Amino acid sequence: MVSINIERLKDSIRDLSKIGYNDEDHGVYRWGFTDADMRARHWLLDLVKNEGFDAHMDGAGNVFFGIGDYHKKPAVLTGSHLDTVPAGGIFDGALGVLSGLEVLRTLKENDVKLEHPVWVVATAEEEGRFGGMMGSQAITGVVNMDWLMSAHDADNVYLKDAMAEHGLDVMNVLDAAWPAERLKAFYELHIEQGPVLFNEDICIGAVEGISGVFKWIVHLKGKADHAGTAPMNMRSDAFMGLADFAHEIERIIAEDGTDKTRITVGKVDLKPGSPHTVPGEAVFTIVGRDMSNDVMQELADSCRKALSAIARKHRLMFEYEQVSWLKPQACSDSLTQIIENKAKQRKLSCLKMPSGAGHDTQFLAQITEAGLIFIPSVNGVSHAPDEWSHWHDVEAGTNVLLDCIVESAS
């Protein structure tokens, strides 16, 4: 068995981590279609072209590079995303892209003969700034022009405007779709973003399925008033409505959720935002997750009912916008078995497991066989500056990815 060069992969990950790095909180800021995100895409394009790989960026901002002509034979595709959440870590997404690059380097320098092309994708806008996973949705052809024109982030920046700032036309996103017959398989290597593998000292996770996720932007509208003169029982305090809903989350999960359910209020904006003014409006996000689409629907209904009741109690108006709804997705049984087999051949411990976080795999699985490989996150931390995976786990996971790609492309 050939193996990857971990020192070379380390250097690539460290180089990418400098783009968008913040010295104050040590987080990485490559929010989708920001300047840092686009710098990372052009950095990658220059890197892989200089190493002799075919490469291009499509109309959705996805960067592709690889070996062989996927127009003549179906390709084995691997990859992940380059964008991060604000104050994110250096591995989430980036690992899947740069491990794919390291696989290509290893195949090339060892002159490995394969029957099918092997390509890597660095998807755009996976972290959901504008809702959904736009890059992989574009590849699989499940975006439409109505959504593309209306999609916006929690600060009311529109996707079409953010793309235009970087010379991308949202009208070209629809041209990014790949026909299913162009793909033979898709693999994604990712950190677990949870504590299971780390706590149980297991090297490899073979993911069986990916949680669904819905995202809302909620408005509770009351009346701004003087904090010193407005009697407590006469206020229409939007923050009190938000606080009441936060206390309802535990009950909603207990009554309508499962042990896989997650509901998170992640971003809050109180208006007008003065210490001496009763908040007249609360704008916040709700993100719900579960492995069952039916359970997700029950959760959404319960959130809606709870917010309606809270709004009546506090004399508020309740409005919400559903930014995205991504259904749960099973991974390919055959590719999951290949992942298990390759881990065993490398004498690595392996666990079949679900993914509570969303990944590009859940969309690629709709048009091809798709497999998702996890490696441990130290203490389960992700989406934070202290996100870390040990280099020996990165090496193990990338070698398993290499072996899986060789088998599927042979």
TrEMBL record:
Residues covered by the Peptidase M20 dimerisation domain: 211-313
A single MF term (Gene Ontology): metal ion binding
Cofactor(s) it depends on: Zn(2+)
Pfam family of the protein (one): M20_dimer
UniProt: Zn(2+) 2 binding residues: D92, E127, H383
Co-factor: note: Binds 2 Zn(2+) ions per subunit.
Keyword Signal: no
Keywords: Hydrolase, Metal-binding, Zinc
SUPFAM superfamilies: Bacterial exopeptidase dimerisation domain (SSF55031), Zn-dependent exopeptidases (SSF53187)
Ligand binding (Zn(2+) 1): H81, D92, H190
Similarity comment: family membership: Belongs to the peptidase M20 family.
Name under which the protein is recorded: N-carbamoyl-L-amino-acid hydrolase
Annotated organism of origin: Idiomarina aquatica
Highest classification ranks of the organism: Bacteria, Pseudomonadati, Pseudomonadota, Gammaproteobacteria, Alteromonadales
